[in-house]
Amino acid sequence: xxxxxxxxxxxxxxxxxxxKYWGKKENQxxxxxxxxxxxxxxxxxxxxxxxxxxxxxxxxxFELYFEGKKKEDFKPKIQQFFERxxxxxxxxxxYKLTIDTENSFPHSSxxxxxxxxxxxxxxxVMSLEKELNPELSTLAEITNEAFFYRKASFLARxxxxxxxxxxxxxxxxxxxxxxxPGSSDLFGIKYPFEIDEVFKSFQDTILLVDKGQKQVSSxxxxxxxxxxxFAEERFAQAHSNLDKLKQVFASGNLEEFIAIxxxxxxxxxxxxxxxxxxxxxxxxxxLEIINKIWxxxxxxxxxxxxxxxxxxxxxxxxxxxxxxxxxxxxxxELVAYCEKGQYICDQVGKGAEKL
Length: 355
Ligand code: PMV
Description:
Elements: E1 5-19, E2 24-25, E3 29-30, E4 34-52, E5 61-66, E6 69-70, H1 75-85, E7 95-103, H2 114-132, H3 144-159, E8 171-174, E9 188-190, H4 197-200, E10 203-207, H5 218-223, H6 231-251, H7 254-273, H8 284-300, E11 305-308, E12 314-318, H9 323-334, E13 343-347, E14 353-354
Parallel strand pairs: 5-7
Antiparallel strand pairs: 1-4, 1-14, 2-3, 4-7, 4-8, 5-6, 8-9, 10-12, 10-13, 11-12
Helix pairs in contact: 2-3, 6-7
This protein binds (3R)-3-hydroxy-3-methyl-5-(phosphonooxy)pentanoic acid (PMV).
(3R)-3-hydroxy-3-methyl-5-(phosphonooxy)pentanoic acid binds near residues 21, 34, 114 and 160.
Pfam families: MDD_C, MVD-like_N
GO molecular function, one term: ATP binding
Protein name: diphosphomevalonate decarboxylase
């Protein structure tokens, strides 16, 4: 092919799951479907320069820079990603790649950058594919653009499961579900039903309770669901919570929303506490914050709730119209439980952008 060299840059966000993905099969196939809000401010920007190799070779040749500095320790993860996607992107070995990446959120904030990072990289790979083959889609029933995003999400999934939910906004579903048309284990889709306006500007303030390295990597975590005594019940519950959320998303019923989202977060942690080996990923301050949130909700009737990832940080979710009041509450009551008083204000976003 004719393309000798060039560069492409994508900026892609993180996402926060409402129904959690926890447990996977071979080839990054999720054990249960999940749904997430795409975020707006927590983003990874990745530039990929490509230069055709003089001779074809059998290796992936790439250099990696993180915030301007060469980063050898991230290389194995990227090497593994390229190996997994090779059969879908065979042209990668024809090019020497220079990958330059940076995050909008503070380094080692305890915020996983795998969803934003892997989705940005997958989009760069797709942009290279598109340069090589502008008539990307060979399927008559699907437009070039839809094909582009679908394949990018498919590739991102192979980098990190939840990354396949980061490309578009505002609500993304991933994993086969009998009542969600178009749903697939292979890629994320835009949630296909009506969603109330309140969710399109939902706020997510991330309270940084523990900025340290994760105690359990998510790949180890997913494996703990193999042979887990409650696995089958949990997977069934995720399906049923997705069913319940359909009504909630359409109606904007925040009471129901809160009940499902908080239960999902606690169930995720309950799975880790009841696996073999077992883990407690919450910290004392995680529980302090949760109790404060409950008190505030009870006493002010403000519809705020929490969710958690596989770590100690707390995501505080609430409608935009309560922003002022909630930020005041955070400053007065929650900041004291955050490491170095740090938190990140984010909200629902529209997905990745090509720069
Ligand atoms: O994408 P992974 O393999 O890092 O798994 C992420 C899993 C959770 O963040 C805990 C839940 C989710 O659905 O995002």
